[in-house]
Design brief:
Distance between the termini: 90 Å
Structural class: alpha/beta
Number of strands: 6
Helix content: 55-70%
Order of helices and strands: HHEHEHEHHHHHEEE
């Protein structure tokens, strides 16, 4: 190897050594941050498990036989179709115990007859569990309904496809909605219209009609949860061929 080649080789070795040294420095520098991230993950899991232990202890103290009863089966009286929003926890806001509610939640509490996931829940609830009531519960300040207030895409393909049916409800009621000046009231009015549309869709399903003709159940209740007060309100009800609207400005 000539002198020029030796210089190039030495330069390459020095560069490699420098990269290794820098890598060690960065590894040492980043280690505390990696440890903190791992520590946060551990804290999340530990907290989750501790909260579960506290809950299990409390509920078994109040009702010692509850877990023995739950393992033997379920017989809920209601199917709850609600929004996935973390602020609308079905059992808590209804003060329901485990085993009292069969629950399906999705963005903006939609009835989705073409989705196997939704229909399997509905089919099991009405045909096997024989629930007597179905609640469709929307809520004030719903982010999904807010996104459906315009035709502008969210950039999330599945979500936009899911919201299209609510956008259609908005188009069909455009004149009424545009007459409401307050933006929050307009949003909450579309929330109510969406709930009523889901009740209508449920009532027209063959599965529901067959159950009603057989045992005159289930009744379908359209409800609204007010985030600002924590209160539920029934705005619409379907009993067979009868429809009852309780909120004057919902239709």
């Amino acid at each position: 190897m000539n002198e020029s080649g030796q210089n190039v080789h030495l330069h390459q070795m020095a560069h490699c050594a420098q990269e290794i040294a820098l890598g060690d420095v960065f590894e040492t520098y980043l280690l505390p941050f990696r440890n903190k991230i791992e520590e946060r993950r551990m804290r999340f899991v530990e907290r989750l498990l501790l909260e579960n232990q506290a809950w299990a202890s409390e509920i078994s103290h109040r009702s010692p036989e509850i877990f023995d009863r739950l393992k033997s089966g379920q017989s809920p009286d209601v199917l709850w179709i609600g929004c996935s929003d973390s602020r609308v926890p079905a059992e808590q806001l209804c003060n329901a115990a485990p085993g009292e509610m069969f629950i399906h939640r999705n963005v903006a509490n939609r009835v989705c007859p073409h989705e196997d996931g939704f229909m399997s829940v509905l089919e099991f609830a009405v045909a096997v569990l024989k629930v007597n009531h179905i609640v469709v519960c929307g809520h004030h300040c719903c982010g999904g309904v807010k996104a459906a207030m315009t035709d502008e895409n969210t950039g999330l393909g599945h979500l936009d496809h899911h919201l299209e049916a609510i956008r259609q409800v908005r188009r069909e009621n455009a004149e009424t909605l545009e007459s409401i000046r307050d933006e929050g009231e307009r949003l909450n009015h579309l929330v109510a219209l969406n709930v009523m549309e889901q009740v209508r869709m449920l009532s027209e399903l063959t599965l529901i009609k067959d159950q009603w003709s057989e045992r005159r159940r289930p009744s379908i209740h359209g409800m609204i949860y007010a985030l600002e007060t924590g209160r539920l309100q029934e705005i619409h009800r379907w009993d067979g061929d009868e429809n009852h609207t309780f909120l004057r400005d919902a239709g």
